[in-house]
Amino acid sequence: MAVTTQKLTFADYLAYDDGSGIRYELVDGDLVPLGLGTGLHGAIAEFLTEQFKMAAQQASQPWTAKDMRIGLRSPRSTRWDTSRIPDVVVLPTAQWDAMRAKEAIIELTDPPPILVVEVVSDSTVATDYRAKHSEYSVLDIPEYWIVDPLKAQVTVGRLEAGRYDDEIFTGHNLVRCLVLPDLALTAQQVLSASLS
Length: 196
Known about the structure:
Helix content: 25-40%
Distance between the termini: 37 Å
CATH topology: tt1808, chain A
Largest sheet: 6 strands, mixed
Oligomer: single chain
Number of helices: 5
Order of helices and strands: HEEHEEEEHEEHEEEH
Shape: globular
Strand order of the largest sheet: 3-6-8-9-10-11
CATH class: Alpha Beta
Number of domains: 1
CATH architecture: Alpha-Beta Complex
CATH superfamily: tt1808, chain A
């Protein structure tokens, strides 16, 4: 649900602070509040952030993962700006370090993140499966995970020729991650945010 009646530019969005502490995505110039999500939603994001960090370190990749802290400017084809805040972003550590003195936004001219994750909630089903699926592919993000506790599945989209080819994982199936191939998590472990 959008909360503004006047369209915002991207610069307006970066400067916007209504004092409420609510985080917003910008969608076609409208502010869209991000809900807190359930405790499980946050636990999944935190769990995956730690798992991606460990897997990158084990693979000697100079990457880090951040949960709900990085915005992605979106190339939606309208005259108004859009910026998304994924639940988890995996990116080069140097790219994260470069954000220390500026807004934590990956611009359209910046290299894309390596992997992004969205955790589905009742209010984000269409956005996560449709809008963001399309937007993230246009940004050339190599892998897009949709973790869906409602359907008890993890969908991994791998970028092929400009669009995602999706593979669905459930139960005790190992989730195949091409960018971190040694990551050994089952769909159930991801959905429960637990290694047991």
